[in-house]
Design a protein that fits this description.
Largest sheet: 6 strands, antiparallel, barrel
Keywords: Coiled coil, Membrane, Transmembrane, Transmembrane helix
Strand content: 35-45%
Organism: Pedobacter westerhofensis
InterPro entries: UPF0194_transport
CATH architecture of the largest domain: Beta Barrel
Number of strands: 21
Number of domains: 3
Low-confidence stretches: none
CATH class of the largest domain: Mainly Beta
CATH topology of the largest domain: Elongation Factor Tu (Ef-tu), domain 3
Structural class: alpha+beta
GO cellular component, one term: cell envelope
Main location: other
Order of helices and strands: HEEEEEEEHHEEEEEEEEEEEEEE
Number of helices: 3
Helix content: 25-40%
C-alpha cells in the first residue's frame, strides 16, 4: 500500500518536472524568435529597392503645383450693352489681328448716340444764342454810354452857361445849383447803367461757361460712346488662337462682360500655387523646376500675387523654354522651387525610406546583410537626398519603405 503511494508521488513529480522543462523550452524558443526578429530578419532581394551613394550636386526644393497657360492672352469684353448677333470665329480657330470674331447688335447704343448728339447740338445752339446776347449787351452799353455821355456834356455846358450868366448878373445861384444837380444825376445814371450791364455780362459769361462745361462733358460722353461703337465690331487685337467665345446667339451682354479670349499658343507660362506656410521662402527670381511626366523644364518665378486664397499663394513662372513642345494649355504640372544648392556632396536617390527628418534610419547593404545606421540628412528634392555621415560613395542603401524594421539591426537579404 505504502509502495503504491510513493510511486504515485514520484510519478506526479516527474510529470511536474517535465511540464516545467517543456514550458522552459517553449519560452526559450519564443525568446529566440523575438531576439532573432529584433536583431536580424530575412528579406528577398526582389522585395526591396536599392540605390548607390554617389557624389554630385543637389538642390533643395519645396513642392508646389502648377498649370500651363498661354503667356499672352487677350481677354475681349463687350464695350456696350448689346446682344450677340453672329459668331464669326469658333473656339480653336486660328485668327489674325484685325479679323472679326463676332457681331453685336448695336442698335440700342446707336440710338443713345443719336440722343446724346442731339442734346449736344442743343447746348451748342444755346451757347451761340448766349454769345449773341452778350455781344448785344456790349453794343447796348456802348450806345447807352454814348447817349449818356452826350447828355453829360450838354449838362456840363449848361452849368458853365449858368455860371457865366450869374457872373454877368443875368442869372441866379439857384440856376447854377440846378444845372450842377442835373449833371450829377446824369453822371450817376450813366454809372448805374454801366454797372447793371457789366453785372449782366458777368452773369451771362458764367452761364455760358456752365453750358460750355456741360457741353464739354457731353462731347466726351459722345466721343466715348463713338469709340465703344467702333469697338463693338469685335475684332482680334493680336494674332493667335480663339480659346473661347460666347456662342449664345441673342444673349444680352452687359458692358465689361467677357465675350471672347485669344491666346498666343507659341509662348507659355506656368501659374503656380503653394501652401501659404512656405510664403517666406517664395522669392521673385528663384529657380523653379516644372516637371511634366518624367521631363523637366526650368524657369524663374516672375510674379508673386499678394492675396492668399484657401491657404495658398499664387505666383507666375516664366520657363526658360517658353515654346517647349511639352506645354499644352491648362496642363497640370508638378513644380519644385529651389531654395538652396550644394555641390560635390554625398547623395542618394530619394525613396520611401526617407521621411523628411534631420536624422533617419537607413539600411546599408553589404555581402547579403543590410545593416541599420542612423544618418544625418541635408538638402533634399524629388530626386535626391543628401547624406552627411555614416556612408561613403559606392555604398548600397535600401530606399524602399523599411518602417516595419525600424527596431531591427541587421537583415539577411536572400537572392
Amino acid at each position: 500500500m505504502d509502495t503504491n503511494i510513493e510511486q504515485q508521488v514520484l510519478s506526479a513529480r516527474k510529470k511536474k518536472v517535465l511540464a516545467y522543462i517543456l514550458a522552459g523550452l517553449v519560452l526559450l524558443a519564443a525568446t529566440a524568435l523575438v531576439l532573432r526578429k529584433l536583431f536580424s530578419a530575412t528579406l528577398k532581394r526582389s522585395e526591396i529597392t536599392t540605390a548607390l551613394v554617389q557624389r554630385g550636386d543637389i538642390e533643395n526644393t519645396i513642392n508646389a503645383s502648377g498649370e500651363v497657360v498661354p503667356e499672352f492672352e487677350e481677354v475681349i469684353s463687350s464695350p456696350i450693352a448689346a446682344s450677340i448677333q453672329k459668331v464669326v470665329m469658333d473656339a480653336g480657330k486660328t485668327i489674325k489681328a484685325g479679323q472679326s470674331i463676332l457681331t453685336l447688335d448695336k442698335s440700342a447704343a446707336a440710338t443713345e448716340y443719336q440722343k446724346l448728339k442731339f442734346q449736344l447740338d442743343s447746348k451748342q445752339n444755346d451757347i451761340r444764342k448766349m454769345r449773341l446776347e452778350l455781344d448785344k449787351s456790349f453794343y447796348d452799353i456802348k450806345s447807352n454810354n454814348d447817349i449818356k455821355q452826350l447828355r453829360i456834356n450838354s449838362l456840363k455846358a449848361a452849368v458853365e452857361n449858368a455860371k457865366r450868366l450869374h457872373s454877368a448878373g443875368g442869372g441866379t445861384r439857384e440856376d447854377i445849383e440846378q444845372a450842377e444837380l442835373d449833371l450829377k444825376v446824369a453822371q450817376l445814371e450813366k454809372k448805374q447803367l454801366e454797372n447793371e450791364i457789366l453785372s449782366k455780362q458777368q452773369t451771362m459769361r458764367l452761364q455760358i461757361r456752365e453750358v460750355e462745361l456741360a457741353a464739354s462733358i457731353q462731347q466726351s460722353e459722345l466721343n466715348e460712346l463713338s469709340r465703344k461703337l467702333r469697338q463693338a465690331d469685335i475684332q482680334a487685337g493680336r494674332s493667335g488662337v480663339v480659346t473661347w467665345v460666347n456662342k449664345n446667339i441673342g444673349a444680352t451682354i452687359q458692358p465689361g462682360e467677357v465675350i471672347a479670349r485669344i491666346a498666343d499658343l507659341s509662348s507659355f507660362k506656368v501659374k503656380g500655387t503653394i501652401a501659404d506656410n512656405f510664403i517666406d521662402q517664395l522669392k521673385n527670381g528663384m529657380t523653379a523646376i516644372i516637371r511634366i511626366n518624367e521631363m523637366q523644364v526650368r524657369g524663374k518665378v516672375t510674379n508673386i500675387y499678394p492675396a492668399i486664397q484657401n491657404g495658398t499663394v499664387s505666383f507666375d513662372i516664366l520657363p526658360d523654354q517658353k515654346n517647349s513642345k511639352l506645354f499644352r494649355p491648362n496642363l497640370k504640372t508638378d513644380v519644385f522651387l529651389i531654395t538652396a544648392k550644394r555641390s560635390n556632396v554625398l547623395r542618394i536617390s530619394n525613396g520611401q525610406t526617407f521621411k523628411g527628418l534631420e536624422s533617419e534610419y537607413i539600411f546599408v547593404l553589404k555581402d547579403g546583410i543590410a545593416e541599420r545606421r542612423l544618418v544625418k540628412t541635408g538638402l533634399s528634392n524629388f530626386d535626391f537626398v543628401e547624406l552627411k555621415d555614416q556612408v561613403k560613395a559606392g555604398d548600397t542603401v535600401i530606399t524602399s519603405d523599411m518602417s516595419e524594421y525600424r527596431n531591427t539591426r541587421n537583415i539577411h537579404i536572400q537572392p
